[in-house]
Each structure stands twice: as structure tokens, then as C-alpha cells.
Specification:
By secondary structure, this protein is α/β, with parallel strands linked by helices. Helix content is 33%, strand content 19%. The chain folds into 2 domains: 148 residues, Nucleotidyltransferase, domain 5 (2-Layer Sandwich); 167 residues, ATPase, nucleotide binding domain (Nucleotidyltransferase, domain 5). Strands 1, 2, 3, 4, 5 and 8 form a 6-stranded mixed sheet that branches. A 5-stranded mixed sheet has the order 11-10-9-12-13, with helices on both faces. Strands 6-7 form a two-stranded antiparallel sheet. Bound molecules: zinc ion.
């Protein structure tokens, strides 16, 4: 059973409800095709919600001010944000068919339940999809944010037209998603796409999960900045300005040698991991998101070279390696695309075990 959190008032009574879709404006013409999905992102960057069309156009969006500390406060903030969104003049006349939630932690998508909040409490076995569904009376698809981003890039971005897509998100953590024939792979343990926890060395720095030698401990933005900072501290005096170091500077051609070595090692680790995955899965497209799309230069070319260095030639002969195209919108757009699929009874939402 799900329940609406206490303290949330019935703020939507003035709107029109129906069993299949929720109309934002009772004046809407029944012949008008102004239908959209409600996209929701609950992640490390806080809360964000938007009305999004099937063509991935963001009609309007609102952001949360800060990252919620508990599941309860997240839901309180979320419902308030949605109220703001629906009150916006640009929301007038749109019908919301379904909602898609991209969550920054592991989820059981089939049951619509979060498994763990990682940086927030109260998300253990939390029926997030059910709460949103009960609140708004529309179908809700829940997905991990990196997997939602993978679906977004497949639907609207750099992964369009691919048959076997590997999307790796290089952010604060490292995650991703795998799609074959447009179907998201989730797996028996819901860990498909958790590329950050692939072992790349037998020993080495501890990962956020506590295990040694995982990819995330070498190539997450946090890990790279932390290791580059240590290298810089060894090279410079304590008064040097090192506090504002950005990921772009670590990968810049004029980075100090110790810092450049960190960037080179990260590039090598990403190349090795993608080589393993591309060989084992025999996918045709690799999309690198997160900072890969921001640092520019020849980062993608360097990763391609490393992939070729470590792969069977036949596995990567036709492999396309691209930076992501949707930027910070990928998870939100992917969640809305999943929402439309759930509305259509799409098989993409079914648990797939291969
Ligand atoms: Zn790990």
C-alpha cells in the first residue's frame, strides 16, 4: 500500500481529473493535441520537474533549491514544485498523460520502488512511483537516473538509431545504461549499467561502495578532482590557488604534468572498461555523458584510441563512440520518454533479464 505523506494539502482539487489523463486547464479543446508527460528528477543536484512533449520539447520546468535530506522532505518539496509548475502560465492548456521519475540511486523499476537513497535517508524500499501515481492519478514510470539518461540519449540524443547502446555517465559517480533493440537492460539484481563498480585494478583506491579498485574510484568527477588536487599539492605551495580546480582544467593540454597524468590514467581506465563492455556485449554505439560532453578537446578521440588498444579488432571495427548530446536534460527527457512508453503499455518498462 502507498500513502500520501502527511502535510501535503489537496492543492490540485481545482483542476480537472480523469481516469486516464490529468488536464491542467478545463478550457482545453478535446481536439487539441497538447499532450505531455510530467518529468521528475530526484538526484544529487536536487529536484527538478518539467512538462515535456513526445518530441522532447520542454514546455516549462522548475527546480528545487536544495537536495532533500530525507524521502519525506523530498516528497514535500516535489509536490510543491509540481504545483508551481502547473500554476505556470506556460502550463495552461496542456494535458499530462503520465509521469516519469529519474531517481539518483538504485531502483526496482518493475515495482516502482527505490532501493536506497545513497545520499538521502528514508529511500530504502520507498514506493516513490506509487506515491506520485496516487497523488496525480496518472501512470508513473520510475527509473535510475543514469538509466533514464541512457534512454533519453537513445530516444533523442547521440544514441538514436543504435541497436546496441552502451551509455556511460561520468559524473559525481559513474553509472549508465545498456539498451538492445530499444529495451533497457536491468538484470536480476538491477545492476545492469552500474559501470562505476566494475573492478579495473586488483587493489587501489576504495570506491564509494567500499570495494577496492572500482572504475568509479578512478574516473568519477569527484575522484579525478580529488586525485588531481593531491597531485597539484605535491607540485605547488600551500598558497597556490587550487581550490577552484575544474574538471576542464584537469584535461586541458596545459595541465601540470602530475595533473595530466591523472587525466591520462582516467582516460585509460575508461577506455579499458568500455573495451571490456563493448567486446562482451558487442554493442554498436557508445555514448559518454557527464563531463565527457563538457571537457571538449580530444577527450573522445583519446578514449577511442584506448578502446582500440584494449579491444578485439572485430568487436570495435564498427563501434561509434560519441559524447552525449542532451547534457543535463538527459535523465529528465529519458524519464518522460519512459512515461510515454508506460502510457502505451510499452515493454521497455518490463523487467528484462538476459
Ligand atoms: Zn564500487
Amino acid at each position: 500500500m502507498t500513502h500520501v505523506p502527511a502535510g501535503i494539502s489537496a492543492i490540485f482539487e481545482r483542476h480537472v481529473w480523469s481516469c486516464s489523463a490529468w488536464k491542467l486547464d478545463r478550457q482545453i479543446s478535446p481536439t487539441e493535441e497538447r499532450r505531455c508527460a510530467l518529468g521528475i528528477e530526484v538526484g544529487s543536484r536536487g529536484l527538478r520537474t518539467a512538462l515535456i512533449t513526445r518530441e522532447a520539447r520542454i514546455v516549462e520546468s522548475v527546480h528545487g533549491i536544495s537536495a532533500p535530506l530525507t524521502a519525506q522532505s523530498a516528497m514535500d518539496q516535489l509536490f510543491n514544485l509540481v504545483e508551481q509548475l502547473f500554476e505556470h502560465p506556460n502550463a495552461r492548456g496542456w494535458t499530462v498523460e503520465a509521469a516519469g521519475v529519474a531517481f539518483g540511486g538504485p531502483v526496482d523499476a518493475g515495482r516502482g520502488v527505490t532501493i536506497d537513497g545513497l545520499r538521502s535517508s528514508g529511500f530504502e524500499s520507498y514506493p516513490l512511483a506509487g506515491l506520485v501515481e496516487e497523488r496525480f492519478g496518472i501512470p508513473v514510470a520510475l527509473e535510475n537516473d543514469a538509466r533514464a539518461a541512457a534512454f533519453g540519449e537513445y530516444s533523442f540524443g547521440a544514441g538514436r538509431g543504435s541497436h546496441g547502446l552502451l551509455y556511460m555517465q561520468l559524473g559525481i559517480g559513474v553509472g549508465g545504461g545498456i539498451l538492445f533493440g530499444g529495451r533497457l537492460l536491468r538484470g536480476a539484481g538491477m545492476t545492469a549499467g552500474e559501470f562505476g563498480h566494475i573492478p579495473v585494478t586488483a587493489t587501489g583506491p576504495r570506491c564509494s561502495c567500499g570495494k577496492p579498485g572500482h572504475l568509479e574510484a578512478y574516473v568519477s568527477e569527484l575522484a579525478i578532482l580529488s586525485r588531481a588536487q593531491e597531485a597539484l599539492d605535491d607540485l605547488t605551495t600551500a598558497t597556490s590557488q587550487t581550490d577552484d580546480m575544474r574538471i576542464e582544467e584537469v584535461f586541458a593540454p596545459d595541465a601540470p604534468p602530475g595533473v595530466a597524468a591523472i587525466a591520462e590514467e582516467a582516460t585509460q581506465m575508461i577506455g579499458m572498461a568500455v573495451a571490456s563492455l563493448a567486446t562482451a556485449l558487442s554493442c554498436d554505439t557508445v555514448v559518454l555523458g557527464g563531463y565527457a560532453g563538457r571537457i571538449g578537446g580530444d577527450f573522445i578521440g583519446s578514449v577511442r584510441a584506448r578502446i582500440r588498444q584494449y579491444s578485439l579488432e572485430s568487436a570495435v571495427r564498427r563501434l561509434i563512440v560519441s559524447p552525449a548530446q542532451l547534457g543535463a536534460d538527459a535523465a529528465l527527457l529519458g524519464a518522460s520518454a519512459l512515461a510515454f512508453h508506460s502510457r502505451a503499455g510499452g515493454a521497455e518498462l518490463e523487467r528484462v533479464v538476459m
